[in-house]
Amino acid sequence: MTALQIPDPSSCFRQAMRRLAATVCVVTCADEDSWHGMTATAVTSVCTQPPAVLVCVNTATAFHARLSASGTFCINLLKSSHVQVSQGFAGDLKGIERFERGNWRLARRLPYLVDAQANLFCKTASVVHFGTHGIFIGCIEHVRLAEDTAPLVYQDGHYVTTSQLAGS
Ligand SMILES: Cc1cc2nc3c(=O)[nH]c(=O)nc-3n(C[C@H](O)[C@H](O)[C@H](O)COP(=O)(O)O)c2cc1C
Q1: Closest residue CA from atom 18 of ligand 1
Q2: For residue 52, which of 67, 103, 120, 140 sits 20 to 30 Å off, Cα-Cα?
Q3: What is the CATH number of the domain that holds 100?
């Protein structure tokens, strides 16, 4: 007789979240010595008055300390051609080497990816700590927009383009 398996709530949660398709971003900041960046999908629009976004950053990452000290950050919305950029900023590369992938420039003292779908230059307005993460809320100070959109999407542990999403 097979025992009834009661699903582990944590495992169910992880599985459910894998279905939450999200545009891949690289969040960057800078200090006097160097540039810093990390791949993130936990990026959400908060409100439009004032224009604000949030990004959730694991306190175990090196980037968390950099972002906490920075006061400003830039959210770069990746395109479907940026898989290698994403992988570099997700741990394939370390430190300043991450910026060797992609065309990065400096504006408003923040590194931004020139051919991203969009770049959101933010000033940190609030930081909320919850569980393992810091939730950084940023007020938008400047936006760069590319003419074309072709988002790099992460779903179920894989990179996909919007044309590959189920149902499209
Ligand atoms: C597609 C993708 C999305 C990710 N999203 C997040 C995220 O939203 N928040 C986070 O803390 N880490 C996220 N990560 C993990 C970090 O990018 C990864 O831990 C990175 O190596 C941290 O770098 P650091 O420790 O050098 O700062 C994501 C990784 C991938 C591949």
Answers
A1: 90
A2: 103
A3: 2.30.110.10
